[in-house]
Structure formats: structure tokens, C-alpha cells
Amino acid sequence: MTKKAKPLGIYMLAMINVAAILSIKNWPMTAEYGATSIFYFLIGALLFFVPVSLVSAELATTLPEKGGLYLWVKTAMGHRVGFLAIYLAWISNVIWYPTVLSFIAGTLAFVITPSLANNNTYVFTVILLTFYGATYINLKGMRISGWMSSFGAILGTLVPGALIIILGAKWLFGSQVSHLTFTMDTLVPSLNEPARLAILAGVLLGFAGMEMSAVHAKDVDNPRKNYPKAILLSALIILIFSILGTLSIATVLPPENINLVAGSMEAIGIFMESFHMQWLTPIIALLIALGALASVSTWAIGPSKGLLEAANDGDLPACFHKTNKANVPSTILLCQALVVTVVSAVFLYFPDVNSSFWILITLSSLLYILCYILIFTSAIILKYKANTKNLPRPYRVPGKNIGMWIVSGIGIVTCISIFILGFLPPEHLSDSEQHFFVSFLVIGLVIFSLIPFLILLGKHKLFSKK
């Protein structure tokens, strides 16, 4: 007789969310915009983060069965559209992994020698070792990866994040020179520079993932009551840390010198040297790398479990149905690791790390936006569908059906707007690089979006022959 796994509580689930979403890696990207980043965070939170959190809480507690977003979209629009949704979530993560893995490599370089951060072979090697390590952890089962997420969130994100915020405040209100200014011009972006609004795509990706923990809804102790509480707790932690952490980095680093991969550690290095605590730098680097690894570990299993449900419904070949003794989709995780290996090779061929980082972040964001549009649309449909409209809904989006229309409508309009803005290239790119940026996004979107349709078409033809 197998021992029943201990259910997840509010704290554990909140830490899984924090580990998956809150990342020190994202702070340099928004710190580049200084005090204006507050505007972007608040807009992103109000028009995207809050709607996603509210909708996820209702859907996860109404349909707490395994499958998460795949189950929601499948129930609303059929298993083929459900497969498209979970595929978009999965592939956007595969494209995102190399960015956070390169951040881990750059952070660990400060433990050995910072110059290694510019060594492509070193970065690529650490990327592979880190991701295959995260894959191994997840193959051991949810309980191990759950504890990894919890400890990683505390020691690897909250502790160093709090240290950055405290030192940033001391720097800002002390005698040191600050690069952060608070005026109306710096707090509100100019509409004459629409390209600066493209950062919203990055902010959105930084807030993405609240729905991911819904795949663990059945593992939660009293999910209908505790899941919404965990979402609220994690949302507050994520928003507060993101704003204060970004401002701390913007305080110490001039915007034109911020490195998107190593910016966090560069800021920490300056803080430690200024306050005579250089000995802490390698320790903080190890903790931040641990937090990033926890984030990868959490994300590696979430969409994969949803993809397993799609495989069980016949949308993927039979080999993808396989699970190991820990009930983890082993074939999908191993396949995912192979794809990440191929995608990560981009860092071997692009000398400009910042441009490569931004391109992958944007492409990942645009693919995930398409998934979110399907989630918001499904939330509205499920309010009226015959087999779901009368289901018990212990947590409801405020305002009943009209409230769901308003909240999901705001989410859909926001997603469409940011999708369009995402094609605006960063200001620092040359004309030729801007053309490459747009072309890469268009080609990448077309190729990756067509894959699920080709899979379904191939299966349809195969069954037709039979």
C-alpha cells in the first residue's frame, strides 16, 4: 500500500507561486526604465496580474481535477483547443528556459570569476547541467519539487531580494549618488515614444504563471478554500518585491549600463563593495542561483502535467502517455530537456547577450499571450455552458457573470494590446538589428504556432487511413 502524499497548504502553494513567478532575473530588464517601471508594474498588475489571479482562482476551484489550464480550455472549447492552449504554455516556457538558465550561469560566475559570464562555452554548459538537474528533481515527484520550490523561493529569491531592497533604500536615502529620479516625466512614460511601451511584454511575462499552480489544485488541502488565499498571498509578495527590487537596481546602476543577464549581480557587487561586505557576494550569488533553479524546477513540471492530460486524450503519440513510479510524465520531461538543449544553442551563435535575451523573452511572451486569450475566453464560456454553469463555485470573480465579463474582457484587451506592442523593437538596436528582431518574432510565431495544428492534422490523416 502506497503512502498518501501530504497535501499542500496555503504557505507551500504560495511559495510554489513565488518560486515560479518572482525572479530577481527580471529586475534589470525593468530597472532600465527607472522610476517609470512603477507605472509599468502597476498597469501590468491592474490590467493583467489581477485578472489572471481572479480567473485562475475561480477556474481552479470550480474544476480542481488534474489538467489545469488544459482542462479549463478543453471543457469550454473542446480537447483540440485545449491542446493548443497547453502547447502554447509549454513551448513558451521552452523558449523562456534559456534566458533564466543563462542568468543562473552568469550569477554563478560571480562565485568563481565574473569574466566567465562572457564565456559562451561556460554559459552553455551550465545551462545544460542546470536544466537536466531540474529535470531529475522533477522526475522524483511533486513532493520533492514542492519543497525545492519552497526553500528556493525563501533562500534564493526572498532573502537576497530583501537584501537588495534594504541596501537600495540605504543607498537612496544615504550620501551615495543615485541614478533614480522621481518626477512626472520619469514616473509616466511619454506617448511620443511608443517603443518604450514594448517593455510591457516583458512585465507581462514577469507576472505570468499564476494559473500554473492550478495543476496542483487536487494536491492542496481544502483547495476550494485555500487556493484563493494562496493566490492572494503570493500576488502581494510578488508585486511588492518586483517594484522595490527594480527600484533598488535602478538606484545604483545607470540605465545605459544595465546588463540584462548580469545586472542583478553587478548591482549587488556595487552594494557589497560600498558597504564593505564583499565577502557576501559569492554567498548571495549562490542563493540567487538556487532561487532561479527553483523557478525552473517549478515551471518544468507545471505545463508538462497539462501536456500529459492532452496526451491521455489522444492529442499526442502514445509514447508521451508514459509516467514513472512517481506519477511524473517522464517522456515529456525528457523530450522537453532535449528541446531546451537545442534552443539554448542560440547563445553560442549570438555575441550580443542582451539582444538574444530580449528576443527570446519577447517571443516567449507573445506565445504565452495567445494562451492567456484562450484562458480568459474559456472563463466566460464556462459561465454559460450547460455542463458547467451550475457547478459549485466556492470562489467567484466578484460581480457574478457580469464581473467575469469585465475581468476577462480587461484581460483579453490587455493581451491583444501588449501582443501588438511586443513587435516594437528595443530602442538600443540598430536598423538592421530591428529588422532582424521583427523578422525573428514573426517567423518564430508562425513556426511554433503551426506545430500543434500539424500534429493534429497528422493524427487525423493517420486515423483516416486506419
Automatic annotation (TrEMBL):
Keywords: Cell membrane, Membrane, Transmembrane, Transmembrane helix, Transport. Gene3D superfamilies: Amino acid/polyamine transporter I. The keyword Transmembrane helix applies. One of its GO terms (cellular component) is plasma membrane. The chain crosses the membrane at residues 7-26, 38-60, 81-110, 122-139, 151-173, 193-210, 231-253, 279-301, 331-350, 356-382, 402-424, 436-457. Its main location: membrane. It is found in: Cell membrane. GO terms for molecular function: transmembrane transporter activity. It holds the Pfam family AA_permease_2. It is a multi-pass membrane protein. This is Amino acid permease. The lineage of its organism: Bacteria, Candidatus Aerophobota.
